[in-house]
C-alpha cells in the first residue's frame, strides 16, 4: 500500500515538473503582460503573460477594453469570453482598482477571418482616474492598448464626457500618423478600430450613435479657450475617422451590480443578454489580424512588437506618437542606411570630388525612396527622415575622408615616382635634352592621367614647381656637361686614332676638336656665348642624334658597346695577328733557307 502511494505521489510531482504537461489548463486563466513599476509611473513587461502569447504560431489579433476604473471592464470581458468571475478576469467591488497594468486571457479564441485562422486575445486594462496614479501613467496604459489592439472598446458608463474625448488624443494622433498608409496591398500599420460602448440604465431616448455624434460636435469657443480648441481638434479628427469607429449601447445587466458575479445568464436582464451576443458578433466582424508593415504577427512577433512599443512609451516623461514613430522606423532606417553604405562601398576610390558627390546623391535618393515607401507615420516621420539624412551625411563624410586619403596616397606615390625619375634624368652619364624632355612629358602625362581625387589640385601645383625646378637645373648643367664630354671624346679619339685605329686623319680631327674646345673658345668666346653660337648648336644636334634616338639610347648601352668594342679590338690585335703570322712568315723563312 505504501508503495502505491509512493508511486502516485512521484507521478503527481512529475506532472508538474514536465514542461507543457498542463499547457492548456495552465493557460486557461488571465495573466499580466504589462505591470506598473514601483513608482507606478511607467510600465514593465510580465513574463507569464508573454509566454502565453509567444506559444501562438498563427496570426494574432487583440481586443482591448479601456475606460474609467470601476466601469465594469473586467466583467464585460468575462461576458464576451463566456466566463464566470471565478475563472475569468478578476472583478472588484471596492473603490481601488482590481486590475493593475494590462492582463491577457491565456487561451485565445480561434476565428476564421477572411480565410486566415486568427488567434484573438482579449486584454483587460487598468482603469484610469483611480486614486494614487498620475495622468502620465494612465496615458501610457491607454497608448499601449491603442497600439497593441485590433479593436479598442472604449467602455463608458452612461454618457460621453469632455475628458473621455480628450483621452482619445493619442489614438487620433496614431490614426493621423498611420491609418490608411497603404502601398499596393500591404498595410504598413493600422491602428485599432474604435468601438464606443456606452453602458446605461435605459435605452430610451437618443441612440448611442446620436450620442456619439452630439459629443463629437464642435463646441463654440468665442473666448478662444485653448483647451476647448484642443478638444475641438480631436472632435474634427474623430469625425474624419468615421469609417474606423463604431458605436454600440449596452444596458445594465442587473440592478444589483455587486452580485453580478453570482448570477447566471438566465438571471440577467434579457435585453442585456441579447445585446451582449450582438456585441460579440460586432467584435468578431470588425476584428482583424494585427499587421505591421504588411505582415501578420504571430506570438513571438507580437511580443517583440510589444517590447518595442513599451520602450518607446517609457522613454519620455509623456508618451508621444513621435516616439512610437521613431521606434517603428528604427529598423527601416537601419536597412536604408545599410543600402546606402553597401552601394557606396562599390564606388572605386579615389575619384574626383564631383563624381563622388554625384554617386552620393544618387544613392542617397535611392535610400530615401526606399524609406518613403516603407516608413511609418506622416507628420512625425519628418524626424526619422532627418535622422536618415543625418546618418547618411555621417557615412558620406567618412567616405569623403577616405577618398581624400586615398587620393593623397596615390598622388604622393606618383609625385615621388616623378621626382625619382627627374633625379635619375639629372644623373644621366651622357646628358640628352631629348631624353630629359621625353621623361619629363611621360612623367607629366602619367601624373595627369593617374592622379585623381580632391588632392590632385594640390599635387599639381607641387608637380609644376618640381618639374620646373628640375628642368631649369638640367638646362643649366646640360651645356657644361656636354662640353666636358666633347673634350673627353676628343682625347679618346686622339688615343684611338694613334694607337688603335692608326689612322692619321682621325687623330688630326680629334686634335682639332680638342684645340677648338679648350683654346679657341677660351681666347675668343666666353662659355656663355659659346652656347648661343650656331656652331655649338650643330655640335649639340650631332650629340643628341648620337646619344638618344629611336634606335639607340647610348646612355644605357654605352658601357656594353665599349666593352664589346674593346673585346673586338683586343681580338683583332692579338688573335688576328697570330692567325696571319705563320702564313706571312713561312714564305720569308723558306726563302732564307733556300738561299743558303
UniProtKB/TrEMBL annotation:
<keyword id="KW-0175">Coiled coil</keyword>
<feature type="transmembrane region" description="Helical">
    <location>
        <begin position="557"/>
        <end position="575"/>
    </location>
</feature>
<feature type="signal peptide">
    <location>
        <begin position="1"/>
        <end position="23"/>
    </location>
</feature>
<keyword id="KW-1133">Transmembrane helix</keyword>
<dbReference type="InterPro" id="IPR030386">
    <property type="entry name" value="G_GB1_RHD3_dom"/>
</dbReference>
<dbReference type="InterPro" id="IPR027417">
    <property type="entry name" value="P-loop_NTPase"/>
</dbReference>
<dbReference type="InterPro" id="IPR003191">
    <property type="entry name" value="Guanylate-bd/ATL_C"/>
</dbReference>
<keyword id="KW-0472">Membrane</keyword>
<feature type="domain" description="GB1/RHD3-type G">
    <location>
        <begin position="57"/>
        <end position="159"/>
    </location>
</feature>
<comment type="similarity">
    <text>Belongs to the TRAFAC class dynamin-like GTPase superfamily. GB1/RHD3 GTPase family.</text>
</comment>
<feature type="transmembrane region" description="Helical">
    <location>
        <begin position="508"/>
        <end position="525"/>
    </location>
</feature>
<dbReference type="InterPro" id="IPR036543">
    <property type="entry name" value="Guanylate-bd_C_sf"/>
</dbReference>
<dbReference type="Pfam" id="PF02263">
    <property type="entry name" value="GBP"/>
</dbReference>
<keyword id="KW-0342">GTP-binding</keyword>
<feature type="transmembrane region" description="Helical">
    <location>
        <begin position="482"/>
        <end position="501"/>
    </location>
</feature>
<keyword id="KW-0378">Hydrolase</keyword>
<protein>
    <submittedName>
        <fullName>Guanylate-binding protein 5-like</fullName>
    </submittedName>
</protein>
<keyword id="KW-0732">Signal</keyword>
<feature type="coiled-coil region">
    <location>
        <begin position="378"/>
        <end position="405"/>
    </location>
</feature>
<dbReference type="InterPro" id="IPR015894">
    <property type="entry name" value="Guanylate-bd_N"/>
</dbReference>
<keyword id="KW-0547">Nucleotide-binding</keyword>
<dbReference type="Pfam" id="PF02841">
    <property type="entry name" value="GBP_C"/>
</dbReference>
<keyword id="KW-0812">Transmembrane</keyword>
Amino acid at each position: 500500500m505504501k508503495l502505491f502511494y509512493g508511486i502516485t505521489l512521484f507521478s503527481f510531482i512529475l506532472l508538474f515538473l514536465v514542461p507543457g504537461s498542463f499547457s492548456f489548463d495552465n493557460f486557461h486563466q488571465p495573466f499580466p503582460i504589462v505591470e506598473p513599476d514601483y513608482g507606478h509611473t511607467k510600465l514593465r513587461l510580465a513574463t507569464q503573460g508573454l509566454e502565453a502569447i509567444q506559444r501562438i504560431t498563427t496570426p494574432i489579433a487583440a481586443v482591448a477594453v479601456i475606460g474609467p476604473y470601476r466601469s465594469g471592464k473586467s466583467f464585460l470581458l468575462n461576458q464576451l469570453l463566456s466566463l464566470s468571475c471565478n475563472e475569468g478576469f478578476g472583478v472588484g467591488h471596492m473603490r481601488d482598482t482590481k486590475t493593475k497594468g494590462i492582463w491577457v486571457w491565456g487561451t485565445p479564441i480561434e476565428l476564421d477571418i477572411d480565410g486566415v485562422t486568427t488567434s484573438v486575445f482579449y486584454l483587460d486594462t487598468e482603469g484610469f482616474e483611480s486614486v494614487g496614479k498620475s495622468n502620465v501613467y494612465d496615458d501610457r496604459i491607454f497608448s499601449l492598448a491603442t497600439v497593441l489592439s485590433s479593436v479598442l472598446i472604449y467602455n463608458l458608463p452612461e454618457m460621453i464626457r469632455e475628458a473621455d474625448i480628450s483621452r482619445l488624443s493619442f489614438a487620433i494622433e496614431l490614426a493621423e500618423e498611420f491609418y490608411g498608409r497603404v502601398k499596393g496591398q500591404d498595410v504598413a500599420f493600422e491602428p485599432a478600430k474604435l468601438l464606443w460602448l456606452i453602458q446605461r440604465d435605459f435605452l430610451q431616448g437618443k441612440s448611442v450613435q446620436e450620442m456619439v455624434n452630439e459629443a463629437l460636435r464642435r463646441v463654440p469657443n468665442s473666448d478662444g479657450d485653448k483647451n476647448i480648441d484642443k478638444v475641438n481638434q480631436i472632435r474634427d479628427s474623430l469625425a474624419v475617422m468615421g469609417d474606423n469607429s463604431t458605436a454600440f449601447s449596452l444596458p445594465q445587466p442587473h440592478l444589483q451590480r455587486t452580485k453580478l458575479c453570482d448570477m447566471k445568464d438566465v438571471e440577467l436582464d434579457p435585453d442585456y443578454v441579447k445585446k451582449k451576443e450582438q456585441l460579440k458578433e460586432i467584435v468578431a466582424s470588425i476584428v482583424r489580424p494585427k499587421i505591421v508593415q504588411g505582415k501578420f504577427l504571430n506570438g513571438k512577433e507580437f511580443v517583440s512588437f510589444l517590447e518595442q512599443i513599451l520602450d518607446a512609451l517609457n522613454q519620455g516623461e509623456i508618451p508621444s506618437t513621435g516616439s512610437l514613430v521613431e521606434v517603428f522606423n528604427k529598423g527601416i532606417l537601419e536597412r536604408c542606411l545599410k543600402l546606402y553604405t553597401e552601394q557606396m562601398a562599390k564606388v572605386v576610390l579615389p575619384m574626383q570630388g564631383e563624381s563622388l558627390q554625384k554617386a552620393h546623391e544618387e544613392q542617397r535618393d535611392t535610400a530615401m525612396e526606399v524609406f518613403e515607401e516603407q516608413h511609418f507615420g506622416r507628420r512625425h516621420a519628418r524626424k526619422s527622415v532627418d535622422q536618415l539624412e543625418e546618418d547618411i551625411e555621417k557615412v558620406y563624410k567618412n567616405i569623403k575622408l577616405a577618398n581624400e586619403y586615398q587620393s593623397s596616397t596615390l598622388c604622393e606615390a606618383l609625385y615621388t615616382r616623378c621626382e625619382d625619375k627627374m633625379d635619375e634624368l639629372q644623373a644621366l652619364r651622357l646628358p640628352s635634352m631629348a631624353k630629359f624632355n621625353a621623361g619629363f612629358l611621360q612623367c607629366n602625362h602619367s601624373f595627369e592621367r593617374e592622379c585623381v581625387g580632391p588632392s590632385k589640385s594640390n599635387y599639381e601645383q607641387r608637380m609644376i614647381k618640381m618639374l620646373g625646378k628640375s628642368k631649369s637645373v638640367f638646362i643649366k648643367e646640360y651645356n657644361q656637361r656636354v662640353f666636358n664630354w666633347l673634350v673627353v671624346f676628343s682625347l679618346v679619339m686622339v688615343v684611338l686614332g694613334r694607337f688603335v685605329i692608326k689612322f692619321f686623319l682621325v687623330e688630326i680631327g680629334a686634335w682639332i676638336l680638342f684645340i677648338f674646345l679648350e683654346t679657341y673658345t677660351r681666347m675668343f668666346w666666353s662659355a656663355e656665348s659659346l652656347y648661343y653660337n650656331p656652331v655649338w648648336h650643330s655640335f649639340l644636334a650631332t650629340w643628341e642624334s648620337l646619344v638618344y634616338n629611336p634606335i639607340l639610347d647610348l646612355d644605357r648601352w654605352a658601357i656594353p658597346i665599349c666593352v664589346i668594342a674593346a673585346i673586338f679590338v683586343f681580338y683583332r690585335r692579338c688573335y688576328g695577328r697570330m692567325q696571319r703570322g705563320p702564313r706571312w712568315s713561312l714564305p720569308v723563312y723558306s726563302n732564307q733557307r733556300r738561299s743558303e
